[in-house]
Amino acid sequence: MNKNLINVATIALAAFGLAAAANADIIMGQPVTAPSGLSTATLEFRGSSAGYTGELYFLGWGTEGTVLNLAPNTNGNHLGQLLFNNHESTSGSTVALLGEFESGSALHFAYVIVAPSSKYDLFRTDVESDRYNFAYDAESGDYRLEDLRRDYRNYDGDYNDAMFRVSFQSIPAPGSLALLSLGGFAMTRRRRR
C-alpha cells in the first residue's frame, strides 16, 4: 500500500475521532432547561458551516413539549424573538432572551431556512419530530442545529449549521438583596465605632 494513502487515512481517522469526541456530550433532542432558582438567559453566536441561510428565534418557555409563555414577536412572523441569522451574525455576538425563567422551564426555539428562497423549512423544539434537529450540552451550554431533516437525501448530521452557547444568570430572591444590604450596613456601622 502506498505510504501517502496510509498517512491520509490515519489523518482522516484522527480528525473523525476528534470531531466525535468534540460532540460526545451534545445530546440530540435534549431541551434547553433553566437551572434551579429564577434566571435570565443569553445566547452567544459561535459560528456556522451551513450552505443554507437560517434564522434562530426564541419561541418562549414552558414544558418540554409545549410553549406556555410566548416570547414577544419581534419580526412579524409569529415566531417570537429573532435572535440570529447564521450567515449575517458575527461570531461572539450575544442576545439576551426576553423573559425570566423558573427552575426546570424548557426554553423553546425555532429555526427557519430563509435562503435559497426555494428551500423553506421550519424546525421547532415544541414539535416532537423537529427536536432532533437541535442538540444541547447542558454542562457546557453548547447548542447546535442541523438544517436538514433526517429523511433528506443529503442529510449529514453534523450539527454545525448554526452553533451557539447558552448561559444562564441567576436572579437573586428579593429577600436576599435586602439581607445583603443590611449586612453591608452593619459592617459599615461597626467600622465607624
Structure description:
20% of the residues lie in helices and 35% in strands. It has two helices and twelve strands. A hairpin with a 2-residue loop joins strand 4 and strand 5. The protein starts with a helix and ends with a helix.
Q: Strands across the major sheet, in which order?
A: 1-10-11-12-3-7
Q: Termini distance? A: 86 Å
Structural class: alpha+beta
Sketch the topology as an H/E string, one letter per element: HEEEEEEEEEEEEH
Shape: globular
Tally of alpha and pi helices: 2
Task: Quote the average pLDDT.
Answer: 82
* Number of β-strand runs: 12
In the predicted model, the low-confidence regions spanning at least 5 consecutive residues are: 1-22
Please outline the major beta sheet.
6 strands, antiparallel
- Strand proportion, as a percent range, falls in 25-35%
Q: List the domain count as a whole number.
A: 1
Rg, rounded, reads: 21 Å
Percent range of helical residues? 10-25%
